[in-house]
Amino acid sequence: MIKQFSKNNFSFLGVDVVPQANLIIKNSREKRLEPKVMYLLVLFATRGREVITRAEILEELWPNVVVGDEVISQLVYGLRNALGDDAKKPKYIETIPKKGYRFIPEVKFIESNESSNLATDVDLDVLKNKPKSSLKTISLLFSIVLLTFLTTWYANTGFPSKGMNLLTIKNILPVTQTNGVEGDFSFHKNHNQMVYVSTGKQGTDLYLKTLGNSQSQQITNDEWLEYSPLWLNEQTLIYIRKKATQYQIISQNMNNDIEIHYESTNGIFNLVIKSNELSEVIFTEYDNYKHNKLYELKSLNISNNKVEYLHDSILKLPSDIRNVVYSLDGQRLYFFNNDDKVKQIVSLDLTSNKYTTISKEFAWVEHIALLDSEHLLISGVLSATKGIWQLNISDHSIKSVLASSSGERIVRSIIKQEQLYYSTYKASTNQMIADTKSKTFDELPKLNSDANEYSGIFSKDNNSIFFVSNRTGYYELWLYDVESKNVLKISDLQASFIQKPILSHNEEYLAVVYEKEGLTLAIISVETGEIINETKIPNMKYPLAWSANDKSLYISEHRGDVNIYRYDWDSLKPTLIQKRAGLFAEENTDSKSLVLIDYELGGLVNKSLIDEDTKLLNNSIMGLESLIPGQLKVVGQSIFALQKDGSTRELQQYSLENIDGEHSGKFLMNLPDKSSVTDFNIDGSKAIFTYRAQAQGDIMRVLLGH
Predict the structure, then answer these.
(1) Which residues 6+ apart lie within 8 Å of 453 measured at CB?
(2) Which of 12, 175, 188, 621 is the most buried (most CB within 10 A)?
(3) Reading across the β-sheet that carries 321-326, which strands appear in turn?
(4) Per residue in 631-672, pLDDT tens?
(5) CB burial class (10 A; 0-12, 13-18, 19+) of residue 481?
(6) What is the three-state SS of 460-512?
(7) What is the architecture, at CATH level 2, of domain 2-157?
(8) How far apart are CA 531 and CA 523, in angstroms?
(9) How far separated are the first and last CA of the chain, in Å rounded?
């Protein structure tokens, strides 16, 4: 127990930390920092200047829960961010390579009986087993933050305290443990069985499992891909299935009788049933802005198979709705608004069409479930931490329930009878280099980690690779030195997502589009990581190339019709260059013309920037519509491109000027299935690409208490 410590009880040698303490308090209110960050601070402070291993941090902060290393990196990054510390030049927390971390400041602890109106009485698990040195060395950070901040933290961020009705974890056990991925699942409210989706080498099918029984019964076994299963009653399921471009909503009883209720060639997702009206099902359908919507919200009456377009009856529905769920009384809809301009969890009153924003804190939401009439259970990403949260519908407060581990995404969570069931998904994204001359791969073991690494681009001399990674918890720009194999973090964006960067010709700047409280186009110094210029943008855009003089940027807009714009360096104001164009752009050295992909003409063109005349250079490239920026590059008189056929991937080389209409590419080499090229080097002999390790995912069961 820690009792009656005052800020006068401690002295700190040479560093004024009151501003840092105040900053942590401010961040706790505004950013709702993960409560474990505070536990980590306490652990560092009580251990003085000792090196604390990652294993010790896991043992102290998660004594009864199995988690992985990534969550430590996220917490350390969050604490450094709150302290205003720099990992490159640390003042407070030093990384000891291959060992752990060390708290830098030297401090003294002075006993005092002086009471304080900031006194607190807190039982901290991390202090139950104090080191032998007791509290001889303890940071003033600990005293100030603990005393002026604990009660504030508890009240404002959901840190556990007496009398609060919070979910606590007693143990975690697997429900499924097979190879592959167990994802979507659901329970019938009056049934002791669960239905779930399992994806393995044999395909994707539905399985039925009786709770408490280790055996599962396979329900489907066909060439369809099934997902989003729900119970209509104890004998009947409703779910979505997909085959090629065919999507169906079907019901199936335990005798395997099937009824098709709705079909579409567009993607269908997220079935939701109103609890008091089982004949009505809501779903979202992919529209790709054909009606100015990315996803349409529709309602299906199962009894007569009538489909209603809800954007007609519900005014001002957002264009990108995800993860819809009904309230208990069926009078409200809760959903994630994934609009480019704002990410928010929204409540919609169906009787008045009134919208209420519940939270703007989540960078991404995987799933929303109704916990009770007052709370939602959110699976998603908050402050770069993946996990499960309890969201209060009325006061909008957020409580952490479970942080994910080892890079896993938690894609679905449901509470049933004092037990939390959730499904995980892990398929780390790593990078490799394909050498088309030697037909070999460089697996870049020093670059890749357990985090997601993607969007690698080459420097001109091939000695460096710039890439995006979330190894700190947030997404940042990183630099990999091919010769020394050292990795260096460049930026400090704290982004929830970063689009593929482009490197200026003088190699001094990177241009990126990143997401953090909205989408931003930024120019960043390679040397300092400083943001030189930035502007908010209304929707997702793909940086393609710098102008020949590095004074402007060519950027394509991938929303509805694809267009290429030129952004001026100083003003970052866009000028439309070409409609129905994208994927690749490169300004000629004389700055008088631009080589680009024109989707209207179906190939590579040379467009005059003086009189806008256009010359078709090549229309023999296969699968242009399926490629994204980075997967095609013009080098001299050749075009290097990725070719996709189902899951297979090939590198192809085309002659620059070929307008005979025949696909006459030269095969270079195969890449791993489903890989994605992000850049070709300066002579086209090497391609850097991302690939996913074999996906794994299980359904887990957590015994809860209060």
Answers:
(1) 429, 430, 431, 447, 467, 468, 469, 471, 690
(2) 621
(3) 321-326, 332-338, 343-349, 354-359
(4) 999 999 999 999 998 889 999 999 887 777 666 789 999 999
(5) middle
(6) CCCCEEEEEECCCCCEEEEEEECCCCCEEECCCCCECEECCCEECCCCCEEEE
(7) Orthogonal Bundle (1.10)
(8) 6
(9) 21
- d(C-alpha 552, C-alpha 570), whole Å: 8
Place of tokens 């309230």: 327
Distance of alpha carbon 687 from alpha carbon 585, whole angstroms:
18
Q: CA-to-CA distance for 233 and 146, rounded, in angstroms?
A: 52
**Residues in the chain, total:** 706
Residue 676 DSSP symbol: E
Q: Give the model confidence (pLDDT) of 467-519 as tens digits.
A: 999 887 788 999 999 999 999 999 999 888 899 999 999 999 999 999 887 88
Count CB-CB contacts under 10 A for residue 16. Answer: 9
Alpha helical stretches, state H, 273-431: 310-313
Supply 669's token pair. 């080499």
Q: Do domains 177-313 and 429-692 have the same CATH topology?
A: yes
**CATH architecture, domain 177-313:** 6 Propeller (2.120)
**Six token digits for residue 586:** 């490169």
DSSP assignment, residue 693?
P
What gap in Å lies between CA 660 and CA 658, rounded to an integer? Answer: 6
180-235, pLDDT tens digit by residue?
Answer: 899 899 998 776 889 999 998 788 999 999 887 778 899 999 999 999 999 988 88
The reported pTM is 0.62
Rounded-to-integer distance, Cα 519 and Cα 531, Å: 15
Tell me the domain boundaries of the chain.
2-157, 177-313, 329-426, 429-692
Burial 221-253 (b: 16+ CB within 10 A, else e): eeebbbbbbbbbeeebbbbbbeeeeebbbbbbe
Helix (H, G, I), strand (E, B) or coil at 644: strand
Residues 149, 151, 156: CA angle, nearest 5 degrees: 90
What is the CA 527 to chain-centroid distance, rounded? 27
Look-up: residue for tokens 């007693």? 170
What is the CATH code for 429-692?
Answer: 2.120.10.30
Question: CA 591: distance to chain centroid?
Answer: 38
- Do residues 91 and 26 touch, judged by C-beta distance below 8 A? no
C-alpha–C-alpha distance, residues 245 and 265, integer Å? 5
Q: What Å distances lie between residue 590 and 69, 397, 548, 551, CA to CA?
A: 51, 57, 8, 14
- pLDDT band at residue 65 using 50, 70 and 90 as cut-offs: low
CA nearest to 234, candidates 264, 195, 265 = 195
Contact criterion met (CB below 8 Å) for 77 and 472: yes
Looking only at the bridges linking them, the beta strands covering 398-403 and 409-416 are: unpaired
DSSP 8-state code for residue 516: S
In angstroms, the CA 281 to CA 274 distance is 7
Q: Got the DSSP string for 410-469?
A: EEEEEEETTEEEEEEEB--EEEEEEETTTTEEE--TTT--SS-EEEEEE-TTSSEEEEEE
CA distance 579 to 598: 8
Q: How far apart are CA 356 and CA 354, in angstroms?
A: 7
Distance CA 522, CA 616 (A): 32
